[in-house]
Amino acid sequence: MKGVIVKGVSKMSTTKKWTSRLFAGVTLLGLTACSGMDTGPEDSYPSLENSQTDVADYLCTGMPLKVMFHGEKAHILWQQETYDLTRAISASGAYYLGEDVSFWVKGKRAGLEIDNLTKVKCQLIRVEA
Fold this sequence. Notes:
Elements: H1 2-35, E1 53-60, E2 63-70, E3 73-78, E4 81-88, E5 94-98, E6 101-106, E7 109-114, E8 118-128
Antiparallel strand pairs: 1-2, 1-8, 2-3, 3-4, 4-5, 5-6, 6-7, 7-8
């Protein structure tokens, strides 16, 4: 009789485990499907409201350079000219590209290149967040 009871408990226990696993799998599948749903156009655009603007002052070959970083954008003021750049892929540090302008930052060092001609090295002076 002990063998029959053990067999019955084992079979019932196996059925409960199977049912629990099946229920967990179906629930997980349902949650995963819901998480990928598009809820509207507001998801299509990154929110700039949550981004903070940081202002950095650099000294480049004795001349002041001001950069305003906001999200993936950088706005540069250099020698009475303004440049708008967008963050690009970089192996190290941060790299920004604009029309005939590039700017890179790594630690307290930076570099500005304009029209592939003017290349200046910069040193960070201060950052305002």
